Automatic annotation (TrEMBL):
UniProt keyword list: NAD, Oxidoreductase
Name under which the protein is recorded: methylmalonate-semialdehyde dehydrogenase (CoA acylating)
Organism listed in the record: Paracoccus solventivorans
EC assignment: 1.2.1.27
GO biological process, one term: L-valine catabolic process
SUPFAM superfamilies given in the database record: ALDH-like
Organism domain of life: Bacteria
Stretch list, region Disordered: 1-22
Pfam assignment, any one: Aldedh
Higher taxonomy: Bacteria, Pseudomonadati, Pseudomonadota, Alphaproteobacteria, Rhodobacterales
InterPro entries: Ald_DH/histidinol_DH, Ald_DH_C, Ald_DH_CS_CYS, Ald_DH_N, Aldehyde_DH_dom, MeMal-semiAld_DH
GO molecular function: methylmalonate-semialdehyde dehydrogenase (acylating, NAD) activity
Amino acid sequence: MRSVHHWIDGKEAPGKSGRTADVYNPATGEVQAKVDLASKAEMDAAIARAAEAQVGWGATNPQRRARVMMKMVDLLNRDMDKMAEVLSSEHGKTFPDAKGDIQRGLEVIEYSIGAPQLLKGEFIDGAGPGIDMYSMRQPLGVVAAITPFNFPAMIPLWKLGPALASGNAVILKPSERDPTVPNMIAALFKEAGLPDGVLQVVHGDKEAVDAILDSEVIQAVGFVGSTPIAQYIYERAAATGKRAQCFGGAKNHAIIMPDADLDQAADALVGAAYGAAGERCMALSVAVPVGEETADRLIEKLVPRIEKLKVGPYTAGDDVDFGPVVTAAAKKNILRLVETGVEQGAKLVVDGRDFSLQGYEDGFFVGPSLFDHATPDMDIYKTEIFGPVLTTIRAKTYDEALKLAMDHEYGNGTAIFTRDGDTARDFASRCNIGMVGINVPIPVPLAYFTFGGWKKSGFGDLNQHGPDAFRFYTRTKTVTSRWPSGIKEGAAFNFKAMD
Ligand code: NAD
């Protein structure tokens, strides 16, 4: 049985706690590896070593740090296929989708090459008589990243690029469900020239996370995962005075207006609802057609598209649309929620519950399901299903559709399909949701913009990647200086204006 160890001080380090977790191949249902789970003592030791290593790294000039990022871009491109293969085998997503996972992370490493420019402070001369004032951005020290299973390359890279390029050391605590790719990323960073100890990958569960949260050394926590854990981490990190940005779950609405190109909308919905088996925080999981006629026509167009979807293992070739979900527990939860939808009176137009794949009967496959006539009180509407299920809730008017999206507790992403610029503009301006697509189904901003949801989808005040990430991973120091020039004013006891 393969073991996945921690990555400490530039090399693999077997765990000492005696605790491990199973890593599955979701397509076959087999356990393919055991990942070490760190104890508090192991986590504390990894943090202490990171703090030592950070001193030199923080003092390395930003351009040299940026060169590590440059080299990292080459290495990620070099090893893309190898990493994607491992990623697919532990996560279950298709091979092209696994490459997309790495690519979207790589783009943030490319952005982080701009660290010298992004870290420049501000300066004004002559703020008062002989007085100059300047601000600088300095690294925080040791920071932590706690990441989810659904993007095992992208989300760690979103954290590592800006945090490391800013001069911090990082403790990465990846998801224990697909832990191998984060180790591969750490090995590549070493090859790219990152000094040992500056990036420590410590695998684990709640015990390891709590050790991060209670550490006096860790200065900031970047978390991505489900909302209850995001809120827990935000609160516990704040209790020890840490900076925290914690991104949570989602229930992304697509509003389909009567004037939309319904073929385009149906294609977009199918890709965004069922891609990666719906295990994306930007999945469109709710369709809100406006008007009965739009709804009827949309369902008519969706059904044959959904029935044609090819579900299979990543090894079955590039025409597979989506793979299995991550664990047997995830599968069970999705099927349970579909069941509640039926019980609570929604119409199950496409039923994926009995899906089974010959030769892969033990895999965690779930067929695609489509609900129509859902209502806001139903569990399938209120809960993030995180599976291949699209729920349709019909609205009579645009305002009713907007209100549905706005009243939902999650506010990660949304999309509107329309040919009317005025409606699209109104929607983008008024909705209380962090990322908006206009005729674009998964509006994931590019690396040089920022990514983050509102409401229960995000706790904290700065987003991921883009300029916000460099603000999150640095703190500002402002210096007011005056060099002796013969001015002798005597002591001042009031707040002085600089005149
Ligand atoms: P999760 O919350 O179960 O796990 C995320 C991380 O928290 C993992 O590293 C895990 O080990 C740790 N963790 C789990 N339980 C914990 C506990 N009780 N105490 C301390 N730490 C704990 O999430 P997941 O299932 O890995 O990922 C899926 C979720 O992530 C979905 O809700 C999805 O919407 C969300 N997500 C959000 C974004 C975003 O940017 N908003 C992006 C990707 C995924």
